[in-house]
Write a structure and sequence with these properties.
Chains A, B: This is Crp/Fnr family transcriptional regulator. The structure is a homodimer. By secondary structure, chain A is α+β, with helices and mostly antiparallel strands. The first copy, chain A, has 8 helices and 8 strands; from the N terminus they run H-H-E-E-E-E-E-E-E-E-H-H-H-H-H-H. In chain A, the strands form 2 sheets. A 4-stranded antiparallel beta sheet of chain A has the order 1-8-3-6. A 4-stranded antiparallel beta sheet of chain A has the order 2-7-4-5. In chain A, strand 4 and strand 5 form a beta hairpin. Chain A binds a DNA duplex through helix 8.
Chain lengths: 193, 193
DNA sequence: CGCTTGCATTGAACTAGGACAAGAAATCAA
DNA sequence: TTGATTTCTTGTCCTAGTTCAATGCAAGCG
């Protein structure tokens, strides 16, 4: 049951059996139906969720109600809103919603503190995870600015080949920063070859 | 001399005098003229630089030679390419260049390791710094996708009121993801009120 | 001092992508 | 099964922003 998450956390730092057991004892397993909100804009985010099974989207809403998907998290990914909510007291404008029936391990800030005091090695592992998210987000920013919509979509397909079968197309459009209609036209054009 | 950087690192975690001295002893002070490359695309980035004085830009170049500025770092900011270079062995496509005469504290991965082993509290401080960079980058991604060019520019002015006097306008355009000409037109329009 | 080189501005022509509308297809609820 | 709701497609028109000049301006350099 814990093998997925243990493999994930051991990716850049190795832990012995005992350390992993401490870690696992601090996780809360949670099964959630599709279309459930894990976080509502304005709430404080008091978890980091590891996706065991299923798919969620994390999105912002701006002042005019315009929605932008920041992240799809599928199996073996982490999702949370670390932005300003855990360490500062500002509420976030971020929403997190399941798109399929999901299974998670929920990890709370309090558990995190406990973990770091009992097994400080984990601080390092979480720092590296954070670093990787930053790298991914920077890359995404670069692509968003410099590529055409068609390029962005074809690269998206390479990166997440299974997602178009799993999530609605207009969500993908929102992730890419283009309109749903235009994505449809792009697909149409691509299909002709 | 060390007060700026000590204040910066103590922002979310507090350290005693002794810990700060260990930290300071591991930094290398460096004075660099303007237009110097700190990192050339393809090189491994083996530092994190804290800007004591001056201004640098960090940018990507894509396959067609198109340049995008990811970050301006001015006084009291950190700049580095953590993306894939320090912990994985892929070279980065990131460039870092000084735009003014600069003073830095350079912090190497080896020093970082030493610091964390001597004073593990710092691991936490660096994790939080990382977290803040991620939050800032996510916000920037969101704005890039959802705002008009004019909005982006006026918000940029609020966030970095001093920068337009310090850096060339076409760099700001590149940061905002718009053409230099269009930024000029936006400024012209704004000036009319 | 003049010369070159880079930077900002402006205008005209062009295009990638958006907004709107309406129909077709698919999914869901009961 | 059927109606209802959501999703996807397609067409038309429209606009924010680009590209490509051309021009003026300021700065660094010999």
């Amino acid at each position: 049951m814990y093998s997925q998450i243990n493999k994930n956390i051991s990716r850049y730092v190795s832990f012995d059996q005992q350390e992993l057991e401490i870690f696992n004892s601090l996780l809360e397993f949670k099964s959630v139906p599709k279309k459930t909100m894990l976080l509502q804009g304005g709430e404080m985010c008091n978890f980091e969720a590891f996706v065991v099974k299923g798919c969620v989207r994390k999105y912002y809403i701006d002042a005019n109600g315009f929605e932008v998907i920041l992240q799809f998290a599928i199996e073996n990914a982490w999702v949370s809103d670390i932005s300003f909510s855990i360490y500062e007291d500002k509420p976030s404008r971020v929403f997190i919603e399941t798109l399929e029936d999901c299974e998670f391990f929920m990890f709370s800030p309090e558990s995190k503190e406990k973990l770091f005091s009992k097994a400080p090695q984990f601080e390092r592992a979480f720092r590296i995870l954070m670093q990787r998210s930053l790298a991914v987000t920077q890359d995404r920013l670069f692509h968003t600015i410099s590529k055409t919509a068609t390029d962005k979509y074809t690269e998206f397909l390479l990166q997440y080949p299974a997602l178009p079968q799993r999530v609605a197309q207009h969500y993908i459009a929102s992730y890419l920063g283009i309109s749903a209609e235009f994505l449809s036209k792009i697909r149409n054009k691509i299909a002709k070859y």
